[in-house]
């Protein structure tokens, strides 16, 4: 029996990004519209790169400083 290795996600669907950040989908879409959360398009799908989530979180700590 062959074990499949789990590949870490490089990008999330909007609903997955919302779950990862513990925010609602509407908040995620507002962050995207405002330019605070970067996304990429693949066909009709909008994806949020993992690095964009990290950049957004870092921007929150910069807002506090």
Describe this structure in words.
The structure is a single chain. With 65 residues, the chain is of the alpha+beta class. The protein has one domain. The chain contains 3 helices and 3 strands, in the order E-H-H-E-E-H. The chain has helices spanning 14-21, 25-34, 50-64, and strands spanning 11-13, 40-42, 45-49. The chain has a 3-stranded antiparallel beta sheet. Strand 2 and strand 3 form a beta hairpin. Helix 1 crosses helix 2. It is globular.
pLDDT < 50 stretches = none
Quote the beta fraction: 15-25%
Structure classification: alpha+beta
List the total number of helices: 3
Alpha carbon gap, first and last residue: 53 Å
Overall mean pLDDT stands at 92
Q: Report Rg.
A: 14 Å
| Spatial order of the strands forming the largest sheet | 1-3-2
Q: State the major sheet.
A: 3 strands, antiparallel
Shape: globular
Protein name: Helix-turn-helix domain-containing protein
Domain Helix-turn-helix: 12-59
InterPro entries: HTH_17 (IPR041657), SinI_DNA-bd (IPR010093)
Pfam families: HTH_17
